[in-house]
Amino acid sequence: DALTDFIRRLPKAELHMHVEGSLEPEMMFDLARRNRIALPFPNVEAVRAAYSFSRLQDFLDIYYQGAAVLRTEEDFHDLALAYFRRAAADGAVRCEIFFDPQTHTDRGLPFGVAIEGLLSGMAAAETELGLSTGLILCFLRHLPEDAALDTLKAAEPWLDRLLGVGLDSSEAGFPPSGFQKVFKAAGERGLKRVAHAGEEGPPAYVAEALDLLKVDRIDHGNRALEDDDLTARLVREGQVLTVCPLSNLKLCGVPSLEVHPLKRMLQLGLKATVNSDDPAYFGGYLLDNWVQTARAVGLEREHLVTLARNSLEGAFWTEAEGAPHL
Ligand code: ES4
Ligand code: ZN
What we know:
The chain is α/β, with parallel strands linked by helices. The chain has a single domain, classed as TIM Barrel (Alpha-Beta Barrel). Helices cover 48% and strands 13% of the residues. The protein has 16 helices and 8 strands. It has an 8-stranded parallel β-sheet with strand order 1-2-3-4-5-6-7-8, with helices on both faces. Helix 9 links the parallel strand 4 and strand 5. Helix 5 runs parallel beside helix 7. The longest helix is centred in the middle third of the chain and has 19 residues. The mean pLDDT is 97. 6-chloro-9H-purine binds next to helix 4.
């Protein structure tokens, strides 16, 4: 229909998408067969039926389990390329994807397997689809900072091919303050910094991400709205929020899309963007997130253009690329 076509044609960037979260049940079974791994599910329907979550941790437990079918560079290549094809069909022009190396190294895969496979999938997307892509390494915050420091060290040979670092996994009880050393080291190596904050954690975690980790974007940021002074600061500083409406719905951060704060964020002057987070688990890719949220909260064309512009301006373009204008 007209709304979907309008949004598809808007040049957009996706800035918050965990590539392990784009693993569709069909590919999970294909990779399990290819790698001769037994799955604890009889079929794809049973996998999909398990995707019912009441909070972030319910999802994470299943997401880390699903990632176990990823074993070879080819697996990571195929995973990333399948996502990029969907994103390109949705009208994305730029995709900055997250990956969780510790999920793979902790089960014995060499660091290079995941990153080389993803970089190869990104190269294929650039030539085959004309997409601009980037890679962000996320540290798992439920593990100690020393493990994050070891991960940054393991990434050393590939730092020139990384856009930046992020912080994800279980938020409550794992504040940004625990990761100051590794974020400082990443900044000194020329990497951009982002962190999940205010998804389930309190507004204070959003302030910590800015003040202590010096992040360039906030992933989610929803709970910042509970603090008027913090909200005013985010507006004043033009901080980009990578908001994920279907993720918020599936993880029960909002009771329905109709009451999602995206429109309120725009009305307040926050630099919000729309993203899919873990599209295979949360029931929608980039365009699904845009269209369903636009309908549910009643976004006008001018809001949609602002969201697209925010995504292009919030992307970490290299100097050679430069940001396109909308
Ligand atoms: C995640 Cl939705 C979400 N939150 C925190 N960490 C994550 N890793 C993958 N998806
Ligand atoms: Zn996320």
